[in-house]
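Submission sheet (multi-component)
Chains listed below:
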Amino acid sequence: MVKVCVPRDSSALSLGADEVAAAIAVEAVRRGAAVRVVRTSSRGLFWLEPLVEVETPAGRIGFGPVDAADVPGLFAAGFLGGGEHALGVGPVAEIPFLKRQERLTFARAGVTEPTSLVDYEAHGGLRGLRRALSMAPAAVVEEVVASGLRGRGGAAFPTGIKWRTVAAAEAPRKYVAVNADEGDSGTYSDRMVMEGDPFVLLEGMAIAGYATGASHGYVYVRSEYPHAIAALEEALAVLRAAGWYGADIQGSGFGFDAEVRVGAGAYICGEETAMLESIEGRRGMVRFKPPLPAIKGLFGMPTVVNNVVSLASVPVILDRGARFYADFGLGSSRGTLPIQLAGNVRRAGLVEKAFGVTLRELVEEYGGGTRSGRPLRALQVGGPLGAYFDSSLLDLPLDYEALARHRGMVGHGGIVVFDDTVDMAAQARYAMEFCAVESCGKCTPCRIGSTRAQELIDRILRGEDAPANHAQLLKLCDVMESASLCALGGMAPWPVLSALRYFPGDFGLPPATEAARVV
Amino acid sequence: MKEAVLPKPLRRPEAPQYPAYDTAQVAAVLARWADTSGNLLPILHDIQRALGHVPPGAVGQIARALNRSRAEVHGVITFYHDFRQAPAGRHVLKLCQAESCQAMGSRQLTAEVEALLGCRLGETTADGAVTLEPVYCLGNCACSPAAMLDGRVLGRVTRAKLERLLDAVGRG
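Outcome: structure written.
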């Protein structure tokens, strides 16, 4: 019986993975070949999707991108024995893009069946939770503090410190709320965790619950992720049936359960307090802080709010120890970061590396340059609120501090690549358009400022008193940055200001002086 | 003692007339979520799944069941892009408008699809077959441009590919 793996990740499905899996099953029957088609998660090598992997004594041999029409040819070429075929990519683990990564959080990506607990445990799953349950809750918190893990959702707040605050709060109930409202364009690592390795997120949640004294969790998933929602529901049911979720987990006396909540198409609900409002059944309007959610969060109770990747990084920290994790990375950016290459890039996919890898390595060595083959012109790092950089900044290392020095951010780790056909004025205008569409409307700088900024950009582009309107736009951006209630209004100016700084010609403005480029 | 002069009661405006809807289905959804805290979003999702939209007439029924004001319920329905107050076309096509897809030509693709269907983003074709909507990221950014047709995610989308799929589901 030959095991053939076909991913069930939604990107693979969007390229016909279901059809490929069906075609393999049909062709196997037709030829009388003993084949077991297994639906695994994705490796995150998306330019090769659908990537079919055949298990051989020499390891898994890959073929991709496979179309259903290629399947008879693959059989004819003897792909079940790892035979030569034009789509062959050799042993998957040896593909340089994958081999040079440091996969901790995504160790199981593409390897396991997402909702098989047996597979999960066989690949290191549940070891973190087992060890946590053998420790005092406060020791679990300190382990996470010592790992240096910072929130991977965008704000980069130290995860352990947040847990400490919740653990110290006295309350009749506490919650763990997972922010799975991954709305940033160019990011998909949360989706990959939830679809491909949902147990690791649920394990991280249970550890967070144990450490902080919370007994109930919510995973707030965006409605644009139907496959993630289904995988989480399935994984929850499996864990409950196996006694890893519910009352009295494995006889430890600790009880924890969770439910999946589905968003309804609102980018702002990725802001933690807006998400809490939404879970409570209201408009996703941002709350004033303080009080911090860690003190007064969901239903007024102390709440751990963590991003998916942050929580999914916790099991390996508990399993291997804080020191092991912190040894990756540098300065105050410890551990690994799942970076997502997207947009106009030849090899788009997930790169999990220790902090410190440069943009150039990511875009040129891993990404292989633009997909269109044209010169690279701009990069947007960190989502729709992240700065645009030009090619002169490619040698920047991807860590929190280095990007902050250039008025950029790591954000959720997405990098969108643009070739030389991009109109940066249109991109800047879009940032404000998006802010206007998605603003919750609570604070004036964001609600009104985003529309006024679009008008100012339009006037600059029409050449109407450009110097004055440019000056006015800079002033408006300053107001939005300083006076908005949350990061949406506060950072929507970043793509605009960076586009003005590095690409003034696209706005019909004179070239920036060297002084203006230095921030 | 002078008799108190009470203000004349205001005449209540006529209650607005909404199209009839399946109240039993809505009641069943409300019953299903009755014991869950913060249940309004799951309720609205389920009503929309059952009826294809959240009928404006149902706002009162939902508000009464949750002991919240109609304004509050209406406010939630209108805040979120997902909830519809009127039925969509027979098929819903969402085209991603966010940066990663822009980098792979989504602006051009959107213009072509608008021309193909004869309707703009946010509109439904004249024959009621297809509703075309913007979406801001499907998490399929490694395979841009992305789209979603009747809940199915599509990657590396081209006009030809969409045309083929739309023909297959029977637009028109």
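Remark: The longest strand of chain B covers residues 91-96.
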